Amino acid sequence: MAAPGFERVPISEQEASVRAKNFDEVCLGYTEEEAVLEASRCLNCKNPRCVQGCPVNIDIPGFIMALKEQNFKGAYDKISESSALPAVCGRVCPQETQCEALCIRGVKGDAVSIGKLERYTADRAREEGIKPHTDCAPNGHKIAVIGSGPAGLTCAGDLARLGYDVTIFEALHEAGGVLTYGIPEFRLPKDTVVAAEIENVKALGVKIETNVVIGKSVTIDELMEDEGFEAVFIGSGAGLPMFMKIPGENAKGVFSANEYLTRNNLMKAFREDSDTPIFRPAKVAVVGGGNVAMDAARTALRLGAEVTIVYRRSEAELPARVEEVHHAKEEGIKFELLTNPVEILEDDDHNVRAMKCIRMELGEPDASGRRRPVPVEGSEFELETNAVIMALGTSPNPLIASTTEGLDTNKWKCIVASEENGQTSKEGVFAGGDAVTGAATVILAMGAGKAAAKGIDEYIKSKN
Amino acid sequence: MYLIKKKRVLHDSIFLMDIVAPRVAKYCQPGQFVIVRIDEMGERVPLTVCDYNREEGTVTIVVQTIGASTLRMKELNEGEYLHDFVGPLGQPSELITDDIEEVKKKKILFVAGGLGTAPVYPQVKWLHEHGIDADVIVGAKNKDLVILEEEMKAVAGNLYITTDDGSYVRKGLVTEVIADLVEKEGKKYDLCVSIGPMIMMKFCTLTTKKYNIPTIVSMNPIMVDGTGMCGACRLTVGDEVKFACIDGPEFDGFKVNFDEAMERMKLYRTEEGRAMLKLKEGDTHHGGCGHCDGGDK
Ligand SMILES: Cc1cc2nc3c(=O)[nH]c(=O)nc-3n(C[C@H](O)[C@H](O)[C@H](O)COP(=O)(O)OP(=O)(O)OC[C@H]3O[C@@H](n4cnc5c(N)ncnc54)[C@H](O)[C@@H]3O)c2cc1C
Ligand code: SF4
Ligand code: FES
User: Fold this and answer.
1) Which of A87, A109, A462, B218 is the most exposed place for a label (fewest CB within 10 A)?
2) What is the mean pLDDT of chain B?
3) The domain B2-89 is classified under which CATH number: 3.40.50.300, 2.60.120.10, 2.40.30.10, 3.40.50.12280?
């Protein structure tokens, strides 16, 4: 293999035409030789800029140097100091806007492929049975964590390492949050990657009680008063789907991306042996431009549909990761950009027949700094489709806030919590992740879980 | 894993189970539901709470075999386990949360269709325990499909049974019984609670509207998570879109758009759908699922 240069070592992927028909992982990962070669491109900077871009401050040059020396356990231990879910992050984090965006190598040539190296390290550790350290002396304090997504898992893992007796309460029948019900198998394999990293958190002594909906099965106040939990972390995510409120939205064949993805990922509807049905029409339109839209579109494609993504701004504004947009295009997904649905049209049996759309153009920048899309008058047209998947974003479920005395939320129903330590308006109650920020990213949720674990530790110590 | 403490077969296709689920048993109220998953590949099946025993930590469910998951569930026996059991979900019946003195002033009529008898039972029982005797109409396809008759008799004021084929008590639809009670027997009701297949609830509300009896219905659309996360269960109520799992399952029957709700239930029942999905189920907690003819029409 050539000596390391300005370009990163390419990574192998399943070929587009093949992967469009299966749910196996798209990216195949580096081989040992490739990983070591890519690692050798890292300059081991004295003031590593990449680390500043990492929300959980992984010692990036530290783990990459160990990798370069083929010290795989050493590399894994370095990452584990800061992250409980490296195999997940190596796959789904937007490194291109975080660590890799700041990497000095990127000034001239490609940034070091930090994400792919993280993935290699975590996968290698799993294959070789290397586990994170689990030596933590119990301190006897009970902490409850609500939600088993990245925020909850990280907070629970960090607290367990500090000796706390942690129980996670999860509403669904399986742990993992969006990692389990939202992000598809072809991007994030469930049984191998996600389940294994959850097992690692459990190995620290964290208990996970599934099928408990906080606010319904039991409230936070009851957990604290009756069940002896001294502090609570809320990592309940932003699970409430949004719809467009346009005519025809309740026709047969209109779904939220949450429903569609949950059927396929959590309930495994793509498998022959699953009892859960999923609608598999010939044509599917997906509305939205984020990761969720890409995931829904690529799932529909794999279930046999011809898929069009409809997004109201232009390609430059697509909020999805560049890699996902690129993969979607390669697989044959069509994009109708600068286009917005105005009505869903039904046939006589109330099945979706088409979606009436209008063309848009970009006007003045709005509050978010992005140019606001405005409709082009008279440009309506019909897009023929049998199903519409709405991937417009999600907001936090008000259930917990409405059943917890004294827990403040803002006008977007997000729980108000300190960025520094997760403290909410209620004593002993901390929060972080999508429940606080609204839909964001895995790594930001993990960062918030970490900060809250520290905040909870300080809180408990201050009381005892 | 959740222990099946008791199982009772009510009919070829209907069975009752007492499940050990202390967290659910501690808080559940009449009107609420649970979601059950039989095994790793099972669907999440919503089932209305039929009874509960807070001391023993058990919750009673009544299940009709309507698809792959419930067919497998029927094969389970006492001492075996359900994989998942989550709840209580949805809002309790308003009768339970309203001021009891106000409720006591009302003359209440329950109309149960087929498997809808199961969710009606805990409400009538709760009222009975609070000194209120409500009249109950139970409609079923035939004699064999009349369930929980003895239990209901013990807690109802008057119990009126009717069957589609006349094989038990009387022949006719529940709406005919309502009309007879109001018109022939001169009964006056201040509130009606109707639970059963959607088509029955629709016609029930058309009848009660005629007599100006405000009517509550319990909606059983397709559901996935039951916590407000997916929107599969959305309904049009008045001019608003509501999620049955968090806003309901009970709604003002005069405002529910039944036609839309019934159409939406058919999604996984199209011809291709059927072939493709074989015996898979798309819903439901008390009959009218769209796969079976679930009780009364
Ligand atoms: C389809 C999809 C694709 C995505 N792709 C990416 C990506 O590529 N990269 C990226 O960085 N981010 C991505 N995201 C965003 C990312 O997944 C989230 O930002 C992240 O998972 C948030 O973590 P969290 O722990 O705050 O919440 P979640 O992961 O949402 O977990 C919350 C958990 O809490 C549980 N819960 C909720 N309410 C209760 C209650 N009352 N009682 C008990 N439990 C409760 C929920 O069931 C859930 O399991 C994606 C999101 C989606 C939906
Ligand atoms: S900035 Fe780039 S080259 Fe420098 S340490 Fe980080 S990954 Fe290595
Ligand atoms: S069942 Fe998913 S939102 Fe109601």
Assistant:
1) A462
2) 87
3) 2.40.30.10
Say if the Cβ atoms of A275 and B228 lie within 8 Å.
no
Considering Cα of A58, then A59, then A61, then A64, what sign does the dihedral take? negative
Which of A174, A211, A249, A389 has the highest number of chain B CBs within 10 A, making it the mutation to test binding with B? A211
Q: Is B80 on the interface with A (CB under 8 A)?
A: no
* Cβ contact A350–B263 (<8 Å): yes
Ligand 3 pocket check: which of B230, B264, B267 to mutate, most ligand atoms within 8 Å of Cβ? Answer: B230
Report residue B270's pLDDT band, with 50, 70 and 90 as the boundaries: low
Q: Whose CA is nearest to atom 3 of ligand 3?
A: B228
- Do the chains contact at A241 and B85, CB–CB below 8 Å? no
Tell me, what's the ipTM? 0.87
pLDDT in tens, B177-215: 898 888 888 889 999 999 999 999 999 999 999 999 999
Q: Is the pLDDT of residue B112 over 50?
A: yes
| Residues B168/B161, Cβ–Cβ less than 8 Å | yes
Instruction: Give all strands of the β-sheet with B14-20 in edge-to-edge order.
Output: B81-82, B2-11, B14-20, B58-64, B45-53, B33-37, B84-89
Residues of A with CB under 8 A from a CB of B: 171-173, 210-213, 216-218, 239-241, 243, 245, 249-250, 252-253, 255-256, 258-259, 262-263, 267-268, 271, 273-277, 279-280, 349-351, 397, 399
The maximal CA–CA distance of chain B, rounded, in angstroms, is 54
Whether ligand 2 lies within 6 angstroms of the CB of A114 is answered as yes
A128 neighbors A419 (Cβ within 8 angstroms): no
Interface A–B counts its CB contacts (< 8 A) at 112
Q: What is the pTM of this model?
A: 0.91
Q: Which CATH superfamily is domain A142-238+396-463 in?
A: FAD/NAD(P)-binding domain (3.50.50.60)
Distance, CA of A247 to CA of A388 (rounded, Å):
13
* Matching residue, tokens 């916590």: B227
C-alpha torsion sign, points A293, A298, A299, A304: positive
Over pLDDT 90: what percentage of chain A?
A: 82
What is the β-pairing status of strands B135-140 and B108-113?
A: parallel
- Chain B residues with beta carbon closer than 8 angstroms to that of A252: 263-264, 266-267
- Minimum-distance CB partner of B280 among A255, A256, A277: A277
Q: In A197-329, where do the E strands start and end?
A: 207-209, 231-234, 240-241, 254-256, 283-287, 306-310
Would the pLDDT of B292 be above 60? no
Is there a contact between A120 and A65 (Cβ–Cβ < 8 Å)? no
How many angstroms separate the alpha carbon of residue B280 from the centre of ligand 3?
Answer: 19
Q: How far is CA B191 from CA A421, B73, B157, B203, B219, in A?
A: 52, 36, 15, 16, 17
Q: What is the pLDDT of residue A366?
A: 82
**Ligand 1 proximity of A442 Cβ (cutoff 6 Å):** yes
Q: Which of B119, B137, B51, B141 is nearest to B285 (CA)?
A: B119
Judged on CB neighbours under 10 Å (0-12, 13-18, 19+), A244 is: middle
Mean pLDDT estimate for chain A: 93
What are the domain boundaries of chain B? Answer: 2-89, 107-218, 223-297
Instruction: At B227, list the tokens.
Output: 């916590």
Phi, then psi, of A239 in degrees rounded to 5? -100, -5
Residues of A in contact with B49 (CB under 8 A): none
**Chain A residue closest in CA terms to B89:** A216
Q: Judge: A349–B83 Cβ closer than 8 Å, yes or no.
A: no
* Rounded Cα gap, residues A192 and A180, in angstroms: 12
Q: Is B242 on the interface with A (CB under 8 A)?
A: no
Residue range A133-156, pLDDT digits in tens: 777 789 999 999 999 999 999 999
